[in-house]
Design goal:
alpha/beta, D-Maltodextrin-Binding Protein, domain 2, 2 domains, 6-stranded mixed sheet, 5-stranded mixed sheet, binds 1-O-pyrophosphono-5-O-phosphono-alpha-D-ribofuranose
Amino acid sequence: MIRIALTKGRIEQKAIEIFEKIGYDCSELHNKGRRLFFNIGDGIEVVLAKANDVVTYVDHGVCDIGVVGKDTIMEMGRSLYECLDLGFGKCRFALACKKDFDFFGGYGHRIVASKYPNVTKEFFRTRGLDVEVVKIDGSVELAPLLGLADGIVDIVETGSTLKENGLEVVCDVAPISARLIVNPASLKLKKNGIDKIIDSIAQVI
Ligand code: PRP
């Protein structure tokens, strides 16, 4: 049996489309109700989980394969075996601030809010900039508007959330897309089955 952990939400539908393209039966995933385990045939079981938990389950080896965004992988900072860039869920991490605010100008102490404090700290550390990072759990765009922060590091997809809130991108931080991660021990123990899945997915993406 091979168990795949799939991130609930944005990534879920695209991943299901890929599983269907390579011939798995995803009917249970289309009528999921409150269930969390799904059999898609050929000895493969899919579990639905939050992004951070997908990484944790694959890291601990209770799931063999995971489908998760690069944003989560970067924030969790684990050295996971990323075997495929799935090419969907494309967006980016960007630093943004209020329109017309000169973020890098002057010598003032800067405060940056983010749902991704580790990504944010790493970005400024590699640039040798001493910035205070404040962790926010959602709608991080509020932080500069309320005066808590000078800027934010957040996911930007279409850019409309920033625009509608009077914010603009200062610079890009990193590109993001959905990734296929594999537990290294599973890759050895279940090599044939896992290679078959990776090869089939690689052919349709
Ligand atoms: C993300 C991100 C932005 C928005 C960007 O939030 O935090 O708020 O999407 O997308 P856009 O550039 O297309 O406007 P998400 O929808 O994941 O919700 P969250 O704030 O609850 O994390």
